[in-house]
Write a structure and sequence with these properties.
The chain is α+β, with helices and mostly antiparallel strands and 358 residues long. The protein is built from 12 helices and 12 strands. Helix content is 48%, strand content 21%. Strand 8 and strand 9 form a beta hairpin. Helix 2 packs antiparallel against helix 3, helix 2 runs parallel beside helix 6 and helix 3 crosses helix 7.
Length: 358
């Protein structure tokens, strides 16, 4: 109960962004307990910001009964989705104009912004809200070193879904997250951005940064007509390695594949760990017309070399699927779907060859 009292007092006396209107309602006891549990969950992740932000947006959904929850960070003149949950989970890396969005206004003003109906509120990007079927939202500022660097935002498909008590709950969550951001940035230069955009185990770009860069490349294709290649890589045999030698061996194999792929690619290319044993590559065009097939072949050859781990030789391999903009699509979903289907086709063909060779 002592922690509840501290949180409640801190909220009433110290939350500078809360409006002074008389209808402000304090969070319930259950909501405060839930926020304390979020603090405990965050503490387990230490200064690893990507999972910390993921925890916050997941818990925000239940705490205020939202359909979407996102953390947007301000980067230049745009707001970028760096964590997302609910029906926004597939939109990591999405960019909105800071000048024409409610999130941008929240960053510029440093105050909580609530929209009850996106169809009648001039502060929102109405076209974006319609695309995402959003009718109401709340954006709460994330403050780091006296500067608002982003927002915690919840959204709903219904009109007027949020009230003053929801602002209070989100305000406490934002303070918890801002504190973690402060300590992460304190202990490492540019740690906030790095941890939000890179995979901890391999050091590669993470899923959010990868999708962000694909969107940037697609915009460049439309603007300049310069194509690029997309590769999806699925590691072969990770389960067998884990079952035979343990998960430490499996982790070492994933890191080895990441290392080999990074050494094979050029500095202008991007490789990311998308999760588990899946990787993605953005391949910049070279002078040859078959740069995509050649790049995929080089990666498969490099990955398939024997790997010594703890005096054992592990067999590594990977299935690779490719897509190219503009030939295979001019939007993120189409390119990913094409590369994904090609990757599974490659996996089937390799299994058939392996079976024929037995």
């Amino acid at each position: 109960m002592a922690k509840l009292k501290v949180l409640s007092l801190g909220f009433r006396e110290g939350w500078r962004c809360m409006p002074s209107a008389p209808d402000v309602t304090l969070p319930s006891r259950d909501q405060l307990l839930a926020i304390i549990r979020v603090q405990t969950e965050i503490a387990r992740h230490g200064l690893d910001l990507a999972p910390v932000m993921a925890v916050v947006v997941e818990r925000a959904l239940d705490l205020v009964k939202a359909d979407r929850a996102v953390i947007e960070l301000a980067e230049d003149d745009e707001m970028v989705y760096r964590a997302a949950s609910g029906i926004a989970a597939g939109q990591l890396g999405l960019r909105l104009k800071l000048a024409s969005s409610l999130s941008g206004l929240c960053v510029r003003s440093g105050d909580i912004q609530r929209c009850s109906d996106t169809e009648s509120d001039s502060r929102v990007d109405r076209a974006a809200c319609r695309r995402m079927h959003i009718r109401s939202m709340v954006a709460v500022p994330l403050v780091h070193a006296a500067t608002t660097i982003g927002v915690l935002k919840v959204m709903s498909k219904t009109v007027a879904a949020f009230a003053a008590v929801d602002e209070a709950v989100l305000g406490l969550l934002a303070e918890v997250l801002a504190a973690d951001m402060f300590f992460a940035a304190k202990y490492a230069t540019d740690d906030l951005y790095y941890r939000a955009t890179h995979d901890e185990m391999t050091g590669l770009a993470n899923r959010a940064l990868f999708f962000d860069r694909i969107r940037n490349e697609l915009a460049r294709v439309k603007r300049e007509g310069i194509e690029f290649g997309l590769l999806l890589i699925d590691m072969d045999g990770l389960k067998a390695i884990n079952d035979s030698y343990g998960h430490l061996a499996g982790d070492a194999a994933i890191c080895e594949i990441a290392k080999r792929a990074r050494q094979t690619l050029r500095g202008s290319d991007t490789i990311a760990r998308l999760g588990g044993d899946e990787f993605g590559v953005i391949l910049q065009p070279s002078s040859g017309i078959s740069f995509l097939a050649e790049g995929a072949a080089r990666l498969q050859k490099a990955i398939s070399q024997p790997f010594q781990y703890d005096s054992r030789q592990l067999i590594l391999g990977a299935s690779v699927g490719t897509a190219i903009a503009t030939k295979d699509g001019l939007d993120l979903e189409a390119l990913l779907e094409h590369a994904d289907q090609a990757m599974y086709q490659n996996k089937r063909e390799r299994k058939q060859l392996a079976g024929a060779g037995r």
